[in-house]
Amino acid sequence: YIPDNPLSMASTGYEGGTARGATTGLDEVVLDGIVIDSPEAVVEHMERIVFPPLREAIASCDTDNTEGIAKFIEGHRAVQKKFGPDILKSPYGCCSLPAFRYGSYGYVNYFMAYSLYPEVMAKDFSLQADYAERANVAAARAIIEGGIPPVVRLDHDMADSRSTLVDVKSLDEIWLPQLARAIRPFIDAGIRLLWHCDGNLMDMVPRLIEAGIGGFQGFQYEDGMDYERICRMTDRNGDPLMIWGGVSVTRTLPMGTPEDVAKEVKWLVRHAPPVGFFLGGSSSVTPGVKRENLKTMFDGLDHYLEHGRD
Predict the structure, then answer these.
(1) Contact (CB, 8 A) for 124 and 50
(2) Beta strands per DSSP E along the chain
(3) I want to staple 134 with a disulfide (CB 3.0 to 4.6 A). Which of 61, 125, 245, 283 is the partner?
């Protein structure tokens, strides 16, 4: 999302899309004529409506999609031109991966189906990975051939403030092997993948590293994300992780004092890995943050740009 017009951002945030969805208070979820009111309805929809076209997409996915690769490169360069020389755009949203489908079905019925019908979920993740593995070959090729920064951020919320949304042992069995297979084209091409963290993902961090993830972004320290411990970890090749750390946008920036912000900036830098560290906000800075808090964060950025880690 690139905010071309600042007036589209109101006092409570972006108000362009206010329609309720499956995870934002929709009274009744109906997909393709099927009322999603039970885990069985989720399974019915997946098997009847989702799986057949997904199998067709797998069969027709062209790993040597010259036209698509050229379009990807052209689109990236257009955005980079719009940003100008002061902002480096990295690719985003181009890595396919097996994902939870709660956004379509809602949390309750989807996760009941996850618990009651693991064989269906395993089939879904496997099919998603079949498609992702092929699509990611073309995406990785576009990044390399286009001279695009070889760093991609992956977004998929899989935890709340307590821990993962499902038993992490079930992820070991039916999801993580499929994730590793799906992202392999990027890893083989030497492209670093960063995982966006929402909630408490500590149980998943070593597992994601083993799958090939090379860094992390978006920490919610107050939910138990152990920043210092993560920064001491290495990727599966033994190299430092790339860390996009930042002042907390859910706690320190909106609710702290300038002194709190300055203290957190110092803490972030002091415990950062030796290389590959990016400093800013932990995620999107929302409306309502005090101007003096933002100024303190930017002053910290300027200080470390000029003086290094001292």
Answers:
(1) yes
(2) 9-10, 13-14, 30-31, 34-35, 151-154, 192-196, 215-217, 242-247, 277-281
(3) 61
Query: Who's near 80: CB < 8 A, 6+ residues apart?
Result: 88, 89
Q: For residue range 234-284, what is the model confidence (pLDDT) as tens digits?
A: 999 999 999 998 999 999 999 999 999 999 999 999 999 999 999 989 988
Structure tokens at 69: 């690769």
CA dihedral 59, 61, 65, 69 (to 10 degrees): -170
Residues 29/162/267/197 CA torsion (nearest 10 deg): -40
Instruction: State the pLDDT at residue 15.
Output: 62
As to burial, measured by CB atoms within 10 angstroms (0-12 exposed, 13-18 middle, 19+ buried), residue 45 is buried
> 61: left (phi > 0), else alpha (psi -120 to 50), else beta?
beta
What band does 20 get if pLDDT is binned at 50, 70 and 90?
A: confident
Burial zone of 98 (CB within 10 Å; 0-12 exposed, 13-18 middle, 19+ buried) = buried
**103's tokens:** 């956004």
The count of other CB atoms within 10 Å of the CB of residue 47 is 14
pLDDT of amino acid 57: 96
Phi-psi bin for 157: left (phi > 0), alpha (psi -120 to 50), beta? beta
Q: Is the pLDDT of residue 310 over 80?
A: no
Contact (CB, 8 A) for 228 and 189: no
Residue 18: which residues within 8 A CB-CB, separation 6 or more? none
* 145-179 per-position pLDDT tens digit: 999 999 999 999 999 999 999 999 999 999 999 99
What are the DSSP calls for 58-105, one per residue? HHH--TT-HHHHHHHHHHHHHHHHHH-TTSPPPPBS--------HHHH
Structure tokens at 5: 């017009």
Q: How far is CA 209 from CA 80, 129, 191, 204, 307, in A?
A: 30, 18, 14, 9, 32
